[in-house]
Amino acid sequence: MNRVKRLSAQQGLDAERALLDATFAGERDSGLLFWSPQEQSLVMPRRLSRLEGFAAAEAACAGLGWPIALRDTGGEPVPQSAGVLNVALVYAIPPGDNEQTRIETAYLRLCQPLCDWLAALGLDPGLGEVEGAFCDGRYNVNLGGRKLVGTAQRWRRRPSDGRYVVLAHGAILMENQREPMVAAVNAFYEHCGLEARVRASSHVALEERYEQPWDQVDALAGQFQRHLVAEGVALDV
């Protein structure tokens, strides 16, 4: 657990932004951050705060113990808690990368080490959408058809050398909080008058498949080191 920084949700988002800023400024070419929130919250895009019913939704979520925190990037509401391990991978794309496929490449550079790590634990991971999952996407990392890891990206282009810089983020559900997480997301949707609903059965926590998953974080860092070096990304972990 020493590798994992315990931060508030806002501090975690700020730490990711600082890593991206440093890489964008050319102060470094890469970085890898593991962090876990000190408290639980429902993190969502700032644009959702403009929805009619947001104030009622915010009060309802807070009443369930999931106060709302706003982020600058897009997507949908995502529960964050001490049972979640956040992985932030930042790098300037290597000169040989195909810029036309950089988004898919970045997702694979994030997801492949995660899949290799899970496979080394004796599990059978896959990628793809999961009906009923919150913040669903093509590059979910799944176990048994249920979502374990949600992923996202943020891009910038450095004016100094024209290289693209990416922040690829994964949120791993390490501990089983599926029921209260889904209740918070659905409460938000309901009070904002949105039809979307999510299901606890669409998710899985790693502790449901592997005991003491937090003990394996160093092994995950090693997977990133090996995979990224092979991809031509010098990674400081």
UniProtKB/TrEMBL annotation:
UniProt keyword NADP, yes or no: no
Instruction: Provide the GO MF annotations for this entry.
Output: ligase activity
| Pfam families referenced in this protein's UniProt entry, alphabetically | LplA-B_cat
> Which keywords describe this protein according to UniProt?
Ligase
Q: What is this protein called?
A: Lipoate--protein ligase family protein
Question: Keyword Lyase: yes or no?
Answer: no
Q: Which domain of life is it from?
A: Bacteria
Q: Where are the transmembrane segments?
A: none
Q: Which InterPro entries match?
A: aa-tRNA-synth_II/BPL/LPL, BPL_LPL_catalytic, Octanoyltrans_LipM/LipL
PANTHER family linked: OCTANOYL-[GCVH]:PROTEIN N-OCTANOYLTRANSFERASE, OCTANOYLTRANSFERASE LIPM-RELATED
Q: What region holds the BPL/LPL catalytic domain? A: 26-225
